[in-house]
Amino acid sequence: MPLGDSITGNPGCWRALLWKKLQDNNIKNTDFVGTQKAQGCGFDYDGENEGHGGMLAADIASQNLLDGWLKETKPDIVMMHLGTNDAWSNRRPEDTIQAFDKLVDQMRSSRDTMKILVAQIIPLNPDGCPECGRRVETLNNAVVEWAPTKSNDKSPITVVDCHKDFDVKAMTRDGVHPNDKGDERLANAWYEPLVKAIKG
């Protein structure tokens, strides 16, 4: 289950590239799941996801939205790229981490062996928010500190560094959403951690 906001779902073509890379490497025992359908990315792919444009991690947690999505789709692995809108809205990093805590609890209630991949999210530099980049870096640092405290052997949490080597000027359309280069960078960042989770 790819879980996130518009970076994941609208259109989220990094998911299409990631799926294709799995197929090209003969990793075909996969089923991307979610209540949201694929958007056009130039070729057919398994595009179901939980990328909800504009959503804050805090809102998904407080409104218990994930619980219903999990019941409907029953994933074994969750790939979570969340927190962009929280940072943009100047939510405190500790509040976003608290939301992540609740979301992970819901994932494990759905499946106690859930494998959870959590992104250090891509840089953020929209018009009118010069401090957004710093907020994302602060959140990403908090994720690195939090993940080991929440991880366990039965349901491991793996931090995936989507921020490193992501040039926000060259790899986004608008300082927020990935362009073709950004999609390629994201697909590459997710690939090895996802393969390890699938095979583990």
Attribute tags:
alpha/beta; globular; five-stranded parallel sheet; Rossmann fold
Walkthrough of the structure:
- The protein is an alpha/beta fold.
- The chain has a single domain (56-199), classed as Rossmann fold (3-Layer(aba) Sandwich).
- It is built from nine helices and five strands, in the order βααβααβααβαβαα.
- The protein has helices at residues 6-9, 13-24, 57-62, 65-73, 84-88, 93-110, 132-150, 168-171, 180-199; strands spanning 2-4, 50-51, 77-81, 115-120, 157-161.
- The protein has a five-stranded parallel sheet with strand order 2-1-3-4-5, sandwiched between helices.
- Helix 2 crosses helix 9.
- The longest helix is centred in the C-terminal third of the chain and has 20 residues, at 180-199.
- It is globular and about 45 Å long.
- The model has no long low-confidence stretch (mean pLDDT 98).
- Residues 3-184 form the SGNH hydrolase-type esterase domain.
- InterPro entries: Ester_Hydrolysis_Enzymes (IPR051532), SGNH_hydro (IPR013830), SGNH_hydro_sf (IPR036514).
- It comes from Colletotrichum siamense (Anthracnose fungus).
- It holds the Pfam family Lipase_GDSL_2.
- GO terms for molecular function: phosphatidylcholine lysophospholipase activity.
Under CATH, the topology is which? Rossmann fold
Task: Output the helix-strand order.
Answer: EHHEHHEHHEHEHH
Low-confidence runs of at least 5 consecutive residues: none
Number of strands: 5
Strand content: 5-15%
The whole-angstrom Rg is: 15 Å
CATH class: Alpha Beta
- Corresponding CATH architecture: 3-Layer(aba) Sandwich
Taken from the alpha-carbon principal axes, the silhouette is globular
Distance between the termini: 17 Å
Major beta sheet, strand line-up: 2-1-3-4-5
- Provide the helix percentage: 40-55%
Largest β-sheet summary:
5 strands, parallel
Class from helix and strand fractions: alpha/beta
In DSSP terms (H or I, runs of 4 or more residues), the helix count works out at 9
What is the CATH superfamily? Answer: SGNH hydrolase
The structural domain count equals 1
| Mean pLDDT reading | 98
